Amino acid sequence: MKRILALAMVLLLAVSMLTACGEKADDKLVIGYTIYEPMNYMEDGKLTGFDTEFAEAVCTKLGVTPEFVEINWDTKFVTLDSNQIDCIWNGMTISDEVKKNCDVSKAYVKNAQVVVMKEDVIANYADVESLKGLKFAAEAGSAGEAAIKDNGLDANYSPVAAQTDALLAVIGGQADACVIDITMAKTMTADGTSYDALTYSLELTSEEYGIGFRKDDELTAKVNAIIDELVADGTLPALAEKYELNLAL
Fold first, then answer.
1. Which of 9, 93, 196, 231 could serve as a FRET partner for 163 with CA atoms 20 to 30 Å apart?
2. What is the pTM of this model?
């Protein structure tokens, strides 16, 4: 009998621990991100960027501590649904797929998917038709990947793990071109950067960014209200100016 009771106690403790792991802590917000300059990136060993500072400002108003967790972008919805994170906050394009898989905040930044190539050849490609047949790279599961497929440019397409890997593929000659967010292209291909031999041209899509929460999560409405406050008090406009972004609000 003692053994049975002991076993029952162990099982009860295990169930309690699993339940606790699946619950959201009231004192923190676990934020899923990837390295994507200027939204979230490392500087002097510290995570920073527009979305990083934006999230910190929202957490201050929510009265919680932000906890940033780097995720695999291609499995972001699985990570969200399994309660490993509370939200996806990383320059996420609002698309039909995104709205199907999570609740989305109001749009906060305007964006576009652009073609990035070596600067010395990009003038040879003036339209989408001229790009067909080229070797393309894009982050798996990204809006860039969707833009490549939607424009019929996927005959020689290879997905990569991150947008920076797509840039590296073009630099290294594994790809002729890549498709990434214009917000990143502006920052990463500027003079003096590691990718200043590259530049961007054609906009394949125009879009807006939103924050992803689990379906029917009350956080969505709370964060939307705080976004309005941060626009009214000048916090978001100041961040947009700092990071050279265009607000969608």
1. 231
2. 0.80
Identity of the residue numbered 234? G
Q: Which residues of 223-232 are buried (b: 16+ CB within 10 A; e: fewer)?
A: beebbeebee
Q: Where are the beta strands (DSSP E) in the chain?
A: 28-33, 41-43, 46-48, 65-70, 87-93, 103-104, 109-118, 136-139, 157-160, 177-181, 198-213
Phi, psi (5° rounding) for residue 98?
Answer: -65, -45
Distance CA 118, CA 47 (A): 29
Largest Cα span, the chain: 82
Domains and CATH numbers, the chain: 2-110+209-242 (3.40.190.10), 111-207 (3.40.190.10)
- The predicted pLDDT at position 25 comes to 63
Q: Say whether pLDDT at 54 is over 70.
A: yes
* 43 contacts: CB under 8 Å, gap ≥ 6: none
Average pLDDT over residues 104-125: 97
Q: What is the pLDDT of residue 82?
A: 97
Q: Which amino acid is at 78?
A: V
CB-based contact 175:137 (threshold 8 Å):
yes
Question: Which pair of tokens denotes residue 86?
Answer: 């509370």
**pLDDT bracket for residue 26 (50, 70, 90):** confident
The C-alpha atoms of residue 32 and residue 67 are separated, in whole angstroms, by 9
| Mean per-residue pLDDT over the chain, rounded | 91
| DSSP labels, 71-94 | --GGGHHHHHHTTS-SEEEEEEE-
Reported as a single tens digit per residue, the pLDDT across 126-144 is 999 999 999 999 999 999 9
